[in-house]
């Protein structure tokens, strides 16, 4: 078997979700090649070559792939992927964007967001917002799969010595163009990969009050997230949303502040190792999944917590 | 321009689903079914485009069982002009549904197709992208803003790091994210009017579409339950537990 893993990156750095995806590829077993598609992304290919367990890195460095526009990059992946038994990509907003296109071009079904590998053709994936886990089997000649990073422990970023091979083919479908992006700037760790996450909900009352959480986060080296209610209320931007339709996180410690615990939110964080809930409503469903619950007014408890860390 | 909106009949988002005792799936007997929430947002966006004078006709389409007519009637009550049901009793894969939708696109020739980004039952997040690939169209997935401008559409997308804007040549595919709009409720007069709007029923065979799938579900299980822990009485106790018991800080 041979597996093609599509690297997640920003043309400068390899995103950690790639390491979890390589881990899923190792669980399947076989030679693992990594495709780095982008523009001016040679440094990413060098980083990918060092990842433990990687056989070969394919570098497709072309202006057409600059922003991973799915119309262009899917043509590249479908062309290269024909030689593999499996094509894996992280279930990031990029992977979710281009990979179903690849599957359709190859005329195979895609298996989305696997959380476990049972065998080379059988996988587990959550359905109904994680309220059920399906075991699915694929008979496709090429298995096209997105990988939920939290389901697999990352492989080592160092220790490998794969060769880097340039891929010449340039596909430009000519149907789409990149206009711009507004990326959140933060010195804190990324939500998806953080060891500690502290999230606020509707109970925070407004965006300014999130400052309290930022202070705690900075003491703990944590990322800050939010519930859908907090995002919908306009307290914080959407890229902070943890939940079924936002980011899926599974840190060592998840602290939910002023979050009631809607199913939608639980779907995004219930695989965290330790969950702490701070909420003044002792009936809040979040307490049913929390390892440690503190029934308290968050406006008193959070500053006190910050002071005691 | 003509806008095609694809919708899906799914278990209502308020229902807490249960896995069947024989692990063959989830129990959908006597469970409330509704239009997938992301599809409601797709219908709303199409209706707003019509209200702005950008869209001239809205065609709602679904691929599903006979009962999915209910969701098409809902789309008609919300403002779609007519509806197409591609009837299939079997549960189809995203690829099979995309192929059926592609056949409808070929027939209807819409300039814009709007779909929900994912269905809340299978959580696949595939159909719009697959339809785009099969049609050779550009795609704007996870949209939080859609602006049609001449022969192109600008789509602002919710991505991991923030927001991204792309320009797509029409015809194009858009899939909706939560913050694109807030869907309206259908008024009673509009629900009554919707009953008289045209609803065409087709079979996948009529469209020459294969519904074969390469994926089979072996079993469906309940997730490992997470049990409630303890209540701590103070911040001091919490910090102590996290340091000395859980050892996570």
Keywords:
A: 309 residues, alpha/beta, 16 strands, 26% helix, 28% strand, B: alpha/beta, two-stranded antiparallel ribbon, 6 helices
What's the gist of this structure?
Chain A has 8 helices and 16 strands.
Please tell me about this protein's structure.
The complex is a heterodimer of chains A (309) and B (249). Chain A has helices at residues 17-28, 42-49, 70-81, 93-105, 210-220, 228-232, 263-269, 298-308; strands spanning 2-6, 31-38, 56-61, 86-90, 110-114, 116-119, 122-127, 132-138, 143-147, 163-166, 176-183, 196-200, 223-226, 253-257, 274-279, 292-295. Chain A is an alpha/beta fold and 309 residues long. In chain A, the strands form 3 sheets. In chain A, strands 5-9-4-1-2-3-10 form a 7-stranded parallel sheet, with helices on both faces. Helices cover 27% and strands 31% of the residues of chain B. Chain B has 6 helices and 13 strands. In chain B, a hairpin with a 2-residue loop joins β7 (138-149) and β8. The radius of gyration of chain B is 21 Å and the shape is globular. The termini of chain B are far apart. Classes of the chains: A alpha/beta (309), B alpha/beta (249). Chains A and B meet through α3, α4, β5, β7 and β8 of A and α3, α4, β7, β8 and β9 of B. β8 (132-138) of chain A pairs antiparallel with β12 (215-221) of chain B, so a sheet runs across the interface.
Would you spell out the secondary-structure blueprint of this structure?
The complex is a heterodimer of chains A (309) and B (249).
Chain A: E1 2-6, H1 17-28, E2 31-38, H2 42-49, E3 56-61, H3 70-81, E4 86-90, H4 93-105, E5 110-114, E6 116-119, E7 122-127, E8 132-138, E9 143-147, E10 163-166, E11 176-183, E12 196-200, H5 210-220, E13 223-226, H6 228-232, E14 253-257, H7 263-269, E15 274-279, E16 292-295, H8 298-308
Parallel strand pairs in A: 1-2, 1-4, 2-3, 3-10, 4-9, 5-9, 12-13, 12-14, 14-15, 15-16
Antiparallel strand pairs in A: 6-7, 7-8
Helix pairs in contact in A: 3-4, 5-8
Chain B: E1 2-6, E2 9-11, E3 33-35, H1 37-51, E4 57-64, H2 69-78, E5 82-87, H3 94-108, E6 112-116, H4 127-135, E7 138-149, E8 152-159, E9 162-169, E10 172-176, H5 188-194, E11 199-202, E12 215-221, E13 230-232, H6 235-245
Parallel strand pairs in B: 1-4, 1-6, 4-5, 5-11, 6-10, 7-10
Antiparallel strand pairs in B: 2-3, 7-8, 8-9
